[in-house]
Write a structure and sequence with these properties.
alpha/beta, 11 helices, cytoplasm, Rossmann fold, binds zinc ion, globular, single chain, binds guanosine-5'-triphosphate, 6-stranded mixed β-sheet, OB fold (Dihydrolipoamide Acetyltransferase, E2P), Ribonucleotide Reductase Protein R1, domain 1, hydrolase, 17 strands, 23% strand
Length: 336
């Protein structure tokens, strides 16, 4: 038995209920497949009945829905507090990754997987979603010192929490406990092999074998490696919920202007100080960004990465146009 608060219910969702909703049970989407979905209810997990017109692609793990209790028929989805989504190459609509996630554990390991430019992509994703990012460096037990790895990620975003742990050790759950209290939802993202499944098993208190059986479906990818292919909602031992996501090979940045501004705040805050309002910060006289690079307060490599992501975001984000402010989505053209 779970209380609604333990499931992550809050005033934000309560405020969306009307008098006629009293007959329905709030439930949280636990898995989304092509033609079926399951949800966690106060009494356990149920398979939802879907109305004929429902499209499971419109739902994300972590979503709150109202359900008709006798028939388990889905009635409607509640507005989301946060939504992680991305566009895949050639994808017309953004793919939903997870909803109502409080904290995104951006996972990488203390080895060659650690790549600040890739982490910045995940940070933009988290910022744009309205989810707090935390960088989790796994495989801390495999290196003599974690300090050099922590140093590489510490400056990636103001106020960013960064920590190193062994994903397979039970202490990992204590290190992450501040983000995992009752009703809190966290999600794991990162490249294949960094230890997301290991961390999930540690947080959910499962042995590796149980974890594989009851958790994610693992199948071989093109290279014969076993990778996580589904996502689902799992209870954390000390309270809260964890959503695992499939390993992402490449994360293209799109629809994330605000997320990028927040990520690169130390750069975007300088722009108003440039002499020209439309300064490109490349060659203009009186450019505050170039001045900061020159006096050593701004890392030129960081500025290059910022420029590249802003450009990528522009070319991948549909232009919102239309008569009298109607928002018409124009799908992005071929990537250059
Ligand atoms: N020593 C050590 N090994 C780890 C740690 N985290 C993961 N591993 C090992 O690294 C390998 C990959 O870990 P997984 O948890 O399967 O990685 P994943 O991110 O879930 O990978 P995908 O399912 O492909 O997305 C496994 O052999 C783990 O046992 C860690 O913190 N320390
Ligand atoms: Zn400038």
């Amino acid at each position: 038995m779970f209380s609604l608060a333990a499931l992550g219910w809050s005033g934000f969702f309560d405020a969306q209920l009307t008098a006629t909703d009293a007959d329905f049970a709030p439930m949280r989407i636990a898995t989304v497949h092509r033609s079926r979905m399951t949800a966690v209810a106060q009494h356990g997990t149920v398979r939802l009945q879907l109305p004929a017109q429902a499209n499971t692609a419109d739902f994300a793990v972590g979503d709150w829905v109202l359900v008709e209790p006798e028939t388990q028929m889905l009635v409607r989805r509640l507005e989301r507090k946060a939504l992680l989504r991305r566009r895949t190459e050639g994808g017309r609509m953004p793919q939903l990754i997870a909803a109502n996630v409080d904290t995104l554990f951006i996972t990488t390991s203390c080895n060659d997987d650690l790549n600040p430019a890739r982490l910045e992509r995940y940070l933009a994703l988290a910022n744009e979603a309205g989810t707090t990012p935390v960088i989790v460096l796994t495989k801390a037990d495999q290196v003599a010192e974690t300090a050099p790895y922590l140093a590489q990620v510490a400056g990636l975003q103001r106020g960013l929490d960064v920590l190193a742990l062994n994903a397979k050790a039970p202490e990992a759950a204590q290190i992450l406990a501040r983000w995992c209290g009752e009703g809190q939802t966290v999600a794991l993202v990162g490249s294949s092999g960094v230890g997301k499944s290991s961390l999930l098993n540690t947080l959910a208190g499962k042995s590796a074998e149980d974890g594989q059986m009851t958790g994610s479906i693992r199948e071989s990818d093109a290279k014969g490696r076993h990778t996580t292919t589904s996502r689902s909602l799992h209870p954390i031992i000390g309270g809260g919920w964890v959503i695992d996501t499939p390993g992402m090979r490449t994360l293209h940045v799109s629809d994330s202007l605000a997320g990028l501004d927040h990520l690169f705040a130390e750069i975007t805050e300088l722009a108003p100080l440039c002499r020209f309002r439309d300064c490109t910060h490349a060659h203009e006289p009186g450019c505050a960004v170039q001045a900061a690079i020159k006096d050593g307060t701004l890392d030129p490599a960081r500025v290059d990465r910022w420029r590249k992501l802003v450009e990528e975001n522009r070319s991948n984000t549909p232009v919102q146009t239309g008569p009298r402010g109607n928002r018409t989505t124009v799908h992005p053209g071929k990537r250059r």
